[in-house]
Amino acid sequence: MDELIKLVAQKTGIPQDKARVAVDTVMNFLKKKLPPTIAGQLDALIAGGKLPDDLMGSLGGLLGGKK
């Protein structure tokens, strides 16, 4: 998550502590809106993992695309 916080700070010009608050706010919002299995995978992705293949299909289904 530190990489994402750095990126937000660089792109917006805000201090890292404020970028951390912004990233935490967005992550918490997304986790509340996404199904629990996808929210857990989002945590894994932010922790430095990669997107599982089945996540892309699930997201496509949520967004009106094909699974």
Question: Could you characterize the architecture of this molecule?
Answer:
This protein has 67 residues and is mainly α. The chain has one domain (2-62). It has 4 helices and no strands. It has helices at residues 2-12, 16-33, 36-46, 53-62. Helix 1 packs across helix 2. The relative contact order is 0.11.
Count of the domains: 1
Any idea what the shape is? globular
By DSSP, the count of extended strands is: 0
Mean pLDDT: 81
Topology:
Layout: H1 2-12, H2 16-33, H3 36-46, H4 53-62
Helix pairs in contact: 1-2, 2-3
For the structure shown, list the relevant keywords:
single chain; 67 residues; mainly alpha; 0% strand; globular
What is the structure about, briefly put?
With 67 residues, the protein is mainly alpha-helical. The chain is built from 4 helices and no strands. Helix 2 packs antiparallel against helix 3 (36-46).
